[in-house]
Amino acid sequence: MAQPATKRVIGLYKNMEKSFSFQKILNNYLRQETEKRKEKKVEYFHASQLGSCKRKQIWRRMNEKETNPADDRALRIFAVGDIFHEFLQKKAEESGCLIAKEQEVINDEYNYKGRYDAFIEKDGVKLLYDFKSQHSQSFHYMQENGTGVDEGKKLQIVSYAVMGNLPVQECRLLFVSKDDLCMMEVPVKVEDYKDKVVAELKELNQFYKTKIIPEPLPEIENGRCQWQCLYCPFRDKCRGEGWEEEVKNKIKEQKKNDKNNIRKNIKPR
Ligand code: SF4
């Protein structure tokens, strides 16, 4: 039970939320900025979406209305991510190895658009960088378990080189842990991913041209709710409201059945 002093603080906080708070100002500002950006029609497939659900990519390209837009907290996280990008770009520039930053790459043949974070040259080697800031918990989990460096991120960084015809053989994903500033750098060879980038863009263009909506992803992956759907802006449109609850119950039921089957199959000695 909350102590009297704590109760007073909670009460104060609640009153503030009702009338005026910095959080409200920030949320409203970020929301307005996001709405302004969304007024612009999507006319390309975007680098940052490559490797993710194709149904989602097609709906984005078709300018479908989002049923599950990012919430206030997610918008604040994205905004702080931008600060990390600026910090890294500034330091790269000051160190004298930055060739270019935040350059837009457009390829009309593939209806592709993207913006890379930094193009760097050091000791005669040119490298293209994508900065990924994340929560320390995800960062360390990824580092210890070798997860999170998915195909999508690799396709994204290589797509800038391929679609922009840039003179670079290797790209790098630089992961930064936001609250303890640990870093991890993952090299990605252009040669290994260039065909995959082209194949994915060809497939997306074909879907768009024929107006065929791709199949949804499997709703359960590795015994868990499909994580891409949990963060998808078209989740309710695609899966229906209450999907997360339903699928979690299905997983529970499945686990119970599996346990029962194991018990049945264990014969007493
Ligand atoms: S809800 Fe899942 S399957 Fe449907 S569009 Fe989104 S990511 Fe794809």
Question: Would you mind describing this structure in some detail?
Answer:
With 269 residues, the protein is of the alpha/beta class. It has three domains: 7-40; 43-213, Lambda Exonuclease, Chain A; 216-263, no CATH class. Helices cover 52% and strands 19% of the residues. The chain has ten helices and eight strands. The chain has helices spanning 4-19, 22-39, 54-61, 72-94, 136-145, 151-163, 190-210, 227-230, 235-239, 243-265, and strands at residues 45-46, 98-107, 112-122, 125-134, 170-177, 183-189, 220-221, 224-225. The strands form two sheets. Strands 1, 2, 3, 4, 5 and 6 form a six-stranded mixed β-sheet that branches. Strands 7-8 form a two-stranded antiparallel ribbon. Helix 2 packs across helix 4 and helix 6 crosses helix 7. The longest helix has 23 residues, at 72-94. The radius of gyration is 22 Å and the shape is globular. Residues 53, 55-56, 216-217, 226, 228-229, 232, 234-235, 238-239 line the site of iron/sulfur cluster.
Quick recap:
With 269 residues, the chain is of the alpha/beta class. It is 52% helix and 19% strand.
Q: What is the C-alpha radius of gyration, as a whole number of Å?
A: 22 Å
Helix segment count? Answer: 10
Largest sheet: 6 strands, mixed
How many E strands? 8
CATH uppermost class of the largest domain: Alpha Beta
